[in-house]
Amino acid sequence: MTDLWYDETGSGRPLLLLHEGVVDSRIWDTFVPLLRDEYRLIRYDQRGYGRSPGWTGPYSPADDLIAVLDAAGVEQAALVGTSRGGRIAIQAALAHPERVPALVLVASAVAGQPLNIEATPEQEAEWEAAEVRGDLRELAEIDLAFWAPMGADDELKAMFYENAAASNGDDPAEEEPSVGRLGEIAVPTLVVTGGRDLPAFEEIADLLTGEIPGAQRAVIQEADHMVQWRAPEELATLVREFLH
Hints:
- This protein is an alpha/beta fold.
- It folds into two domains: 182 residues, Alpha/Beta hydrolase fold, catalytic domain (Rossmann fold), CATH 3.40.50; 45 residues, no CATH class.
- The protein is 39% helix and 15% strand.
- It contains ten helices and seven strands.
- Strand 2, helix 1 and strand 3 form a beta-alpha-beta unit.
- The radius of gyration is 17 Å and the shape is globular.
- The model has no long low-confidence stretch (mean pLDDT 96).
């Protein structure tokens, strides 16, 4: 059982989708129809996001992931994780290797690896002022400027606004560092980045491909950090060809 919201569609090999830390599982809306005839697609709202309950104390995001698989009756699922979702996917693959046969890490973060994101003094001042005021909408606008510089339609903006409390909150997630253990990952792994994303994620992608044995690399040029929203067809093609 799990208290997290999840849904599933399609049939075939299970594929679990994990969203970024500034949105919720609706970010996969345009991606899911492209693969549901070939895979059993499962997606969920991480704790505190979307339709899932908020955190009430320390919790393990990797254990939450496994709980979703258990609730869906799935023994193994390839994981497609974007940003924070990629970080969680890596942790699950290390903690429960028997449950994860393949990884697709998209604009992924890594637990224990700092994100070298450069902000101007003006941006830092705006963020600090909005945080002091508790202005979640302004914090979401600042997040949009960083993570979605290619622009945002009403649907994407709504996801940022509605998840601003979680993305800017004091998340008590308990995460073991994955840095230093990436060489233990023994499943096929594809690392994907957006060509218009922040340089920090290219650095992490280099780390992942350098440390995970046999990891493959791909770039979707016309995508910022919201890769599956910008280029669902290209990402679906990469996933399909990688998992064939």
